[in-house]
């Protein structure tokens, strides 16, 4: 059966049209087809059909699906019911064909084959029969999906027209573009393409007029300025930039913005959020370069052969020798061959400890690591497994300052290739070191000619000057790139004379990391106006780049106006001192690391570094506060927005301790509490609180709040005693302040500590009081959720379910995704305790959806343990073991419940030796609390199973006493405290 969605919906079976009259039934079929054979949970499907507020969704779905099956007749079997939801064994075939054509288009763009680009775009566009899903636009999911597909259709059209323009058909393209611009007057890529086509047909005035009209329209209708790309095109047309008349032959590896719009939009699918047409998951090989790759052909070929086999290759060379560009080109080339590539830029990282998390994040972003497969607390095994499984290439760029962690990774790597760029080797066995020296002289001169735009315009005398310029910067690529930027101001002869003078001035100067580039950097810096010098050196405080808005907030520092920043940035970009990275509609400004080091040195010389670091920290603090203000980080998008600036936030936090900035640093840590909690970054949070709480000069109220958060994150790392001490200090500070909000915060965290220390009666009392005294409903929800856990552990699942339900209702009302992720997971455990297995599994699945959006690595394994317990209860031991092992992959140590639950499953399978090993690990590591009591309960069952009745009875008596003292009665584990053959009627809660 074929389902066609690129127009009004059509259904075909064996060449015969199948009529599905009712729109709702058609919508169900389309929604399941778009899921591409993945089951869609009932809640998700109902929301997509009727919106968020719908009564009795499961019953309504059954009716609609029943009608759909009746309409499909003999083909009704394509709709299946699975435990995870409804599933269709059909797909949207026309959309799949369009996606395949988009993949061909994407590949052709990489190789510069514009004829193939045009053909692929034409093939994709030919599949449309009108507006996508035109007959279903009143259905919520179809309205959004249809709009996305329409946008993709326009993007494919732009890609086709751009390809035809590059093939020399400017005249024909102008006609079609004019019509499209009339229908989309504010679509900047279309307007820019039309302007370029007009320019190439000799109509410069018309091209500039079109861009001027666009500028006015954007200002009058939207109140915004044109994008930097549009502004740059306008300037290039004014200057008659020769590159605008480029032929269709484009260097391999260059991608324009139009090439990036040809991928299909992300389609709605169960558990998905991935692009529908990417030829493979995005690997993080970095943005395509805006300049051609000149020289290094010999090095490129040699390294390509070396990287074909597993092992470590380290490219070493001085700063500016082109290591990064060579590594990026190798990554792009190997990625085009179909082999997975992951590129991680290490330059923004200040600590060796940040390397492995950065690699893990790149693997997750590229789709090479499944959800939860890499434990954030101990990521190395998961990283090695993910890379080896697909024989990937891992590229680690700029490793010289974090060699310790890179060496740790390289020593354990097997089954994949690693390419490292560094100023020195790693010195590990098996390492293949490849020195990268200066460019060959002929190649260096060719690079300078190409970058300066001097093709065909160089005299014999100027060639001698070019040689002198290249020699002055030691024939290094970065120095040549920077020198080329100066040719916009100076003639070749003027540049050669002045850069040579500058070299003589530096003879005998102090050495350093970038001494060979100091010539070009000094010269570039001194040619700048005072405003541009200030902006350049102050940009050095940003780690990982910044947006224009961030620069406008930090860089002025009292002696520049905000309006000075944008023009200065444009000039710095034109001089190749600042680079621009585009990610969709967002643009970031970055300094090459050599330039950033130089900027920081100049900032220090100017006596401005402390002032700028203070401004940078204040910007980070205001940024986090602004992002969290609307919803308190309840939405996944808010959390993601904060972590998009994590390199800057991390730098601000790490530079604050034992400085006057420590106070604002601690305030920033307090603002990061929820984002850290959401991502389960407890160790990271604890590290920063430890460094900042002693040196910050804050009010008692602020310190009490910080210590309460510090205590919570300490608790979540497993250090219960230290957490209790920190929370006691917070309580002492809070007591005389008579601040109900603060007192509640401390009370809540102390209740959590009571739970973890298995002081359950105290926890129930403290948390019940907290819920009663709550000053707002969201605070009451937090207490109710924690109270539910205390009740569940106490052996009261019905009361626990009621508490969890109160909490989740508030979270749902406030659209608190983190609260729902946690609350639904807890609700599943309570339902499991009541024997309502199907409801428990449904709640865990819904919790998964929120947890994945938030990248919450704490909740996902807990849901796996719920599924394991449900499988164990139904006798499906293999499934139970699989879920337990999945959860175990998240545990950095043996202080959680994954080992206990796996031991319980293996006990049922008769694998006594493995059970003993797991329990011994728990006994050795667990400081106490629920995991230890649960493990000892399973140990009783193990002794009975092994025939050691005497030992079992003795341990049983001990554990019953411990459970009674703690108030522990979680039936999931206390059921193990009964001898074999004991009936349910004889069982009772330990006391």
Low-confidence blocks of residues:
247-283, 501-516, 983-991
Helix content: 55-70%
Class by alpha and beta content = mainly alpha
Outline type: globular
Distance between the termini: 63 Å
Q: How do the strands line up in the largest sheet? A: 7-8-9-6-10
Describe the structure.
The structure is a single chain. A five-stranded parallel β-sheet has the order 7-8-9-6-10, sandwiched between helices. Helix 26 runs antiparallel to helix 27, helix 32 runs parallel beside helix 34 and helix 42 packs parallel to helix 44 (929-946). The chain contains 46 helices and twelve strands. The chain is mainly alpha-helical and 991 residues long. Strand 2 and strand 3 (16-17) form a beta hairpin. Residues 247-283, 501-516 and 983-991 have low confidence and may be disordered.
Essential attributes:
mainly alpha, 12 strands, single chain, 991 residues, 5-stranded parallel β-sheet, 3-stranded antiparallel β-sheet
Write the layout of secondary structure elements.
Elements (H helix, E strand, L loop, with lengths): L1 E3 L5 E4 L2 E2 L5 H12 L7 H9 L6 H16 L6 E4 L2 E4 L4 H19 L2 H12 L14 H27 L3 H14 L4 H13 L3 H19 L5 H11 L18 H4 L36 H10 L4 E6 L6 H14 L4 E5 L9 H11 L14 H10 L3 E5 L5 H10 L4 E6 L9 E4 L5 H12 L7 H13 L4 H10 L5 H15 L11 H10 L2 H10 L8 H7 L7 H13 L4 E5 L2 E5 L2 H13 L3 H20 L7 H8 L2 H9 L7 H10 L1 H7 L2 H11 L7 H17 L3 H15 L5 H17 L3 H13 L4 H17 L3 H17 L3 H17 L3 H18 L4 H15 L3 H12 L9 H11 L3 H14 L3 H18 L2 H18 L4 H4 L17
Parallel strand pairs: 6-9, 6-10, 7-8, 8-9
Antiparallel strand pairs: 1-2, 2-3, 4-5, 11-12
Helix pairs in contact: 1-3, 2-3, 4-5, 5-6, 6-7, 6-8, 7-8, 8-9, 9-10, 12-13, 14-15, 17-18, 17-19, 18-20, 19-21, 22-24, 22-25, 23-24, 26-27, 26-28, 26-29, 29-31, 29-32, 31-32, 32-33, 32-34, 33-34, 34-35, 34-36, 35-36, 36-37, 36-38, 37-38, 38-39, 38-40, 39-40, 40-41, 41-42, 42-43, 42-44, ...
């Amino acid at each position: 059966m074929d389902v066609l969605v690129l127009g009004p919906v059509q259904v075909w079976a064996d060449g015969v049209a199948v009529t599905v009259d009712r729109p709702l039934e058609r919508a169900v079929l389309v929604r399941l087809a778009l899921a591409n054979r993945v089951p869609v949970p009932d809640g998700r499907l109902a929301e997509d059909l009727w919106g968020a507020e719908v009564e009795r969704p499961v019953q309504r779905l059954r009716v609609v699906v029943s009608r759909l099956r009746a309409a499909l007749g003999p083909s009704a079997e394509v709709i299946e019911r699975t435990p995870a939801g409804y599933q269709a064994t059909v797909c949207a075939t026309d959309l799949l064909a369009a996606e395949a054509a988009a993949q061909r288009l994407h590949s052709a763009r990489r190789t510069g084959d514009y004829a193939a680009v045009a053909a692929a775009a034409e093939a994709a566009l030919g599949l449309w029969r009108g507006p996508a899903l035109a007959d279903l636009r009143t259905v919520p999911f179809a309205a959004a999906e249809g709009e996305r597909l329409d946008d993709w259709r326009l993007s494919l059209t732009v890609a086709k027209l751009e390809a035809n323009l590059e093939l020399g058909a400017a005249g024909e393209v102008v006609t079609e573009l004019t019509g499209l611009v009339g229908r989309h007057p504010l679509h900047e890529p279309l307007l820019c393409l039309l302007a370029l086509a007009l320019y190439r047909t000799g109509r410069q005035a018309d091209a500039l007029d079109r861009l001027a009209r666009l500028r006015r329209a954007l200002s009058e209708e939207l109140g915004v300025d044109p994008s930097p790309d549009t502004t740059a095109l306008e300037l290039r047309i004014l200057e008659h930039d020769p590159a605008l008349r480029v032929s269709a032959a484009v260097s391999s590896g260059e991608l324009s913005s139009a090439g990036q719009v040809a991928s299909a939009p992300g389609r709605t699918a169960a558990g998905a959020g991935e692009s529908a047409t990417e030829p493979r998951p995005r690997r993080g090989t970095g943005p395509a370069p805006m300049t051609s790759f000149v020289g290094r052909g010999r090095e490129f070929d040699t390294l390509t052969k070396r990287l074909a086999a597993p092992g470590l290759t380290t490219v070493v060379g001085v700063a500016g020798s082109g290591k990064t560009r060579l590594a990026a080109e190798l990554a792009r080339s190997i990625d085009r061959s179909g082999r997975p590539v992951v590129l991680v830029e290490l330059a923004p990282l200040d600590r060796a400890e940040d390397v492995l998390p950065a690699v893990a994040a790149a693997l997750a972003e590229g789709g090479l690591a499944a959800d939860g497969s890499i434990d954030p607390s101990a990521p190395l095994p998961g990283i090695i497994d993910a890379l080896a499984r697909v024989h990937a290439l891992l590229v680690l760029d700029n490793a010289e300052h974090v060699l310790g962690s890179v060496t740790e990774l390289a020593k354990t790597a097997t089954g994949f290739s690693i390419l490292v760029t560094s100023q020195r080797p790693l010195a590990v066995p098996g390492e293949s070191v490849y020195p990268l020296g200066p460019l060959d002289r002929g190649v260096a001169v060719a690079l300078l000619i190409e970058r300066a735009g001097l093709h065909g315009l160089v005299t014999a005398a100027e060639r001698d000057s070019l040689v002198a310029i290249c020699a002055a910067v030691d024939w290094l690529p970065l120095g040549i790139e920077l020198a080329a930027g100066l040719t916009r101001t100076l003639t070749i002869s003027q540049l050669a004379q002045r850069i040579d003078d500058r070299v003589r001035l530096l003879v005998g100067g102090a050495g350093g990391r970038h001494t060979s580039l100091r010539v070009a950097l000094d010269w570039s810096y001194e040619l700048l106006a005072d405003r541009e010098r200030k902006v350049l050196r102050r940009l050095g405080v940003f780690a990982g780049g910044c947006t224009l808005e961030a620069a406008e907030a930090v860089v002025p520092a009292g002696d520049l106006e905000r309006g000075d920043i944008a023009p200065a940035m444009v000039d710095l970009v034109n001089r190749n001192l600042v680079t621009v990275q585009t990610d969709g509609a967002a643009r970031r400004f970055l300094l090459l690391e050599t330039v950033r080091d130089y900027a920081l040195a100049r900032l220090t010389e100017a006596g401005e570094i402390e002032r700028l670091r203070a401004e940078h920290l204040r910007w980070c603090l205001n940024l986090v506060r602004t992002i969290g203000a609307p919803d308190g980080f309840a939405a996944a998008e808010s959390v993601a927005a904060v972590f998009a600036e994590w390199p800057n936030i991390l730098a601000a936090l790490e530079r604050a301790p034992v400085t006057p900035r420590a106070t604002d640093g601690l305030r920033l840590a307090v603002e990061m509490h929820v984002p850290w909690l959401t991502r389960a970054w407890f160790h990271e949070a604890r590290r920063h609180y430890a460094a900042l709480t002693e040196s910050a000069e804050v009010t008692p109220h602020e310190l009490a709040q910080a210590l309460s958060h510090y205590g919570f994150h300490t608790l979540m790392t497993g250090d219960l005693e230290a957490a209790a001490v920190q929370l006691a200090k917070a309580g002492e500070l809070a007591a005389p302040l008579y601040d109900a909000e603060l007192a509640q915060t401390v009370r809540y965290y102390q209740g959590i500590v009571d739970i973890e220390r298995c002081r359950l009666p105290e926890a129930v009392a403290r948390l019940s009081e907290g819920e009663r005294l709550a000053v707002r409903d969201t605070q009451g929800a937090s207490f109710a959720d924690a109270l539910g856990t205390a009740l569940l552990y106490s052996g009261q699942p019905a009361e626990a379910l009621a508490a969890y339900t109160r909490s989740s209702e508030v979270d749902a009302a406030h659209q608190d995704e983190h609260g729902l992720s946690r609350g639904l997971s807890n609700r599943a455990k309570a339902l499991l305790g009541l024997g309502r297995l199907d409801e428990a599994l449904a709640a865990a699945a819904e919790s998964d959806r929120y947890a994945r959006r938030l990248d919450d690595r704490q909740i996902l394994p807990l849901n796996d343990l719920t599924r394991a317990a449900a499988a164990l209860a139904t006798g499906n031991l293999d499934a139970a073991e699989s879920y337990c092992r999945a959860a175990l992959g998240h545990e950095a140590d043996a202080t959680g419940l994954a080992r206990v639950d796996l031991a319980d499953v293996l006990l049922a399978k008769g694998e006594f030796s493995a059970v003993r090993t797991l329990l011994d690990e728990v006994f050795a590591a667990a400081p106490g609390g629920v995991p230890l009591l649960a493990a000892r309960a399973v140990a009783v069952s193990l002794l009975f199973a092994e025939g050691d009745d005497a030992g079992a009875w003795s341990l049983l008596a001990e554990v019953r006493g411990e459970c009674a003292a703690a108030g522990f009665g979680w039936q999931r584990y206390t059921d193990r405290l009964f001898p074999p053959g004991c009936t349910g009627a004889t069982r009772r809660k330990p006391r």
